[in-house]
UniProtKB/TrEMBL annotation:
Coiled coil, from the record: none
Name listed for the protein in its UniProt record: Lipopolysaccharide biosynthesis protein
Polar residues bias (residue ranges): 534-543
Biased composition (Basic residues): 504-516
Transmembrane segments: 245-264
Region ranges (Disordered): 504-543
Keywords: Membrane, Transmembrane, Transmembrane helix
């Protein structure tokens, strides 16, 4: 299977993993949903209901006969856009206020409740009015429609009256001139002179007739501005989406905001959070997830915790890389190393339970303390542990402790000891001979080292042990820290066999320790550990 096909198969898994990580932030998702429901309820019950009613007016032009072509032509001269502006203007609003019994100070408020629209390709104006009650909405729409018709008809009548008055002002001098010509015609006796005056009289009579016809036509105009085609009625229900829909919409929007917040939290959260993320960062499987933090006794006698340790031990026993060498290094990325100690102890007990000769080496020479927390079955000295080592290192020469693991049997513990030079001790031939005990048939060596990102001690043992198990709390361990651990172990010649996850211990009065983002491995200087070894030289010791 090529890489492209494998990537296409992994896409649903990655998407499923991301969805699961988003849903882990239940507080954010629940808070968004609750806020949305509260907002929807506030809009549904807290805001006053509004009602909208509409009336429609067919606008027409003044004409003598609306059924002839002249009437149609006059209608085409109407600028419906200007009429819409006039209908929404202050003058019409003032007339509507009078019809509604409102004062002139409320004209602006009435206009804010009105909306005048024009359906495309029509001479219809639609008056939509919004009010707090159905009756007020219907009355407002009808008042504005009638106010518009009244205003426009009054405007048309005033224009006609002015035009008639102007024609009459032109007609009166002509009528007087006509009377003078009639008198002059009666006085003249000659035909030539009389014919000239008669021609002037005919011209004058034509002008008088034209003006008279204009006045007659203006007086016969139908000045009706239009007709109400739809009368506003009180609406039966309020405007808006309704209470159930508003609450549902608020819940949907709140859920979307909550999911967005959870997604952003997941994106910008540096911690691993999930087993899948830990596996991708370490490029190794998750061997087990402890059901609770091992903050009690180091040895888990029974229950779910003990079974989880057994499951991890069996998975390691069938791992080909571990079965070849039977050397295991247990570390944490960072922290105090307490959880790694519990995992190392219980894995050693599980190996002893399977019949192996198990040896636990406490290579944490900076804060040793396993011997005082484990039940001791007997004391003795191994052959290699008698006296000090040949090269002068004080560890691992010393006593070896037999630990009573209850029903699992017993295993040997090499307790840690504070030494002056940690790096030199861990790379000494004596340490190499100790770890080589796993070469004996049926023997397993488990080594506990300090956190990888806190000290370089674990890296000094990687090439001697090869197989590494990383113990971490995914909620407080950064993805970058896990990737850094993998890079350091790979660079030192080792291999990460897998990870053991735990939920972490909650301690009152202390904040949970956040994962470090260190790009280098710091080695603190203390009076007992005044010597450091460069990382590139830690793996140079002989086995």
């Amino acid at each position: 299977m090529n890489e492209e096909a494998r990537g296409q198969q992994d896409e649903p898994e990655l998407l499923r993993d991301q969805v699961q990580q988003v849903l882990r932030h239940r507080v954010l998702v629940g808070s968004g949903l609750l806020a949305g429901l509260l907002a929807g309820s506030w809009f549904a019950f807290g805001s006053a209901p509004t009602y909208e009613s509409s009336s429609e007016v067919l606008v027409r032009a003044a004409t003598v006969n609306p059924y002839v072509s002249n009437g149609v032509a006059a209608d085409k001269q109407i600028n419906i856009g200007s009429e819409r502006q006039t209908a929404a203007g202050n003058t019409v609003a003032a007339r509507a206020a009078q019809k509604l019994g409102r004062g002139t100070s409320e004209v602006g408020a009435l206009q804010s409740h009105l909306q005048v629209t024009n359906p495309p390709n029509t001479l219809v104006l639609k008056f939509s009015y919004v009010a707090g009650t159905p009756k007020a909405a219907a009355e407002g729409a009808n008042a504005f429609a009638q106010a518009y018709l009244d205003y426009r008809e009054k405007q048309t009548a005033g224009t006609v009256a002015k035009m008639v008055q102007g024609y009459k002002a032109q007609l009166d001098p002509l009528a007087k001139q006509r009377d003078d010509l009639i008198k002059e015609i009666n006085r003249l006796q000659g035909d030539t002179e009389k014919s000239t005056v008669l021609a002037a009289q005919a011209n004058l009579l034509g002008q008088i007739t034209q003006l008279t016809n204009n006045i007659t036509e203006l007086k016969s105009l139908d000045t009706t501005a239009g007709y109400v085609t739809v009368t506003a009625e009180p609406p039966k229900k309020a405007e808006g989406l309704g209470t159930p829909l508003l609450i549902a919409l608020g819940g949907v929007l709140g859920l979307a905001v909550g999911l967005l917040g959870a997604w952003l939290r997941m994106i910008f959260d540096p911690s691993a959070r999930s087993a899948e993320t830990v596996a991708r960062a370490l490029r190794a499987p998750v061997l087990g997830v402890l059901p609770k933090a091992p903050d009690g006794p180091l040895l888990a006698a029974d229950g779910a915790l003990a079974e989880q340790y057994r499951s991890v031990a069996f998975r390691l026993a069938y791992d080909r890389h571990f079965a070849d060498r039977r050397r295991l290094l247990v570390v944490e990325p960072n922290g105090e190393g307490t959880t790694a100690g519990a995992v190392a102890v219980n894995l050693t007990a599980c190996f002893a339970e399977t019949g192996m000769s198990a040896l636990l080496v406490e290579a944490d020479l900076r804060r040793p303390g396993l011997a005082g927390r484990l039940p001791e079955a007997s004391r003795g000295r191994a052959a290699w542990a008698t006296g000090r080592s040949g090269d002068g290192t004080p560890w691992p020469a010393g006593r070896i402790v037999t630990v009573d693991a209850g029903e699992s049997g017993t295993f040997e513990l090499v307790p840690g000891t504070r030494v002056p030079h940690v790096a030199r001790t861990l790379t000494s031939p004596a340490t190499t001979r100790l770890l080589d005990q796993a070469d004996a048939p049926g023997t397993t060596v488990v080594v506990l080292a300090p956190p990888v990102l806190s000290y370089a001690d674990a890296l000094a043992l990687v090439d001697r042990v090869d197989g590494v198990v990383v113990v971490c709390d995914p909620r407080t361990t950064a993805r970058t820290a896990l990737e850094r651990v993998r890079e350091l172990i790979d660079g030192a010649g080792g291999q990460v066999l897998g990870a053991v996850l735990h939920p972490g211990a909650r301690r009152r009065g202390k904040k949970r320790r956040r994962a470090t983002k260190a790009a280098t491995v710091p080695v603190p200087s203390t009076p007992l550990h005044d010597e450091t070894v460069p990382l590139n030289t830690l793996s140079s010791g002989s086995r």
